[in-house]
Amino acid sequence: MKIHVVENYDEMSREAADILADIVKNKPDCVLGLATGDTPIGMYECLVRMYEAGELDFSAVRSVNLDEYYPISPDNDQSYRYFMNKHLFDKVNIDKANTNVPNGRAEDADVFCREYENTINKLGGMDVQVLGIGRNGHIGFNEPETELKPYTHLTELTESTIEANARFFESEADVPKHALTMGIRSIFKARNIVILASGVEKAEAVKTMLSGNISTLCPASLLCLHPSVTLICDKAAYSLV
Ligand code: F6R
Fold this sequence. Notes:
- By secondary structure, the chain is an alpha/beta fold.
- The chain contains 8 helices and 10 strands.
- Strand 2 (31-34), helix 2 and strand 3 form a beta-alpha-beta unit.
- The relative contact order is 0.18.
């Protein structure tokens, strides 16, 4: 794993955006694996600025997102589809037909998950997958468990994640209790992975991820098994390593 420790959130965002921008420039029809949450917002802002400056063209780019709450409607302002439209898709010239976010309204979640995995396969995997890290070491919605599911699946959120995500909802009770998420094997279909971490509240998770031990109890630690991972981490998130 390559580790870049940067000064702060803005520097992390710029570095991550530069990596994605290079991929888009070198391969205009690349497949971007995207994430939501607070962490990548600055990266999306940088990408939008590059697009507005005429440096980037998203017209042939394809994308697949990591996860989505379940059930949730795509026009719910807390859905990840809504988030992606707001922070990136509505602000650049990507063709929405080429964007994939798990369907929070799928009638049969298991059938949908199999289809989503097929979509990833048909796209030939991701050129890059962007990840954030949960305070408990989760990636996507792969929560710490003794066993993890390899492919896209329906999962139950842990109390820690519900609590962390409650800030986006009116109350903790409104946070959906389930999500559709790529599994670890789906994430590993990416040829490159960029994992971002910012802030002291991620320091414990970053420390465990980099401990040298690999455990499903810290899903991010499994990234050590992937051949091309870059961690971009600010000083606060790196402070316990
Ligand atoms: C988001 C996702 C989650 C977040 C993680 C960190 O698509 O899959 O794993 O990356 O919960 O969230 P933030 O960035 O809000 O701290």
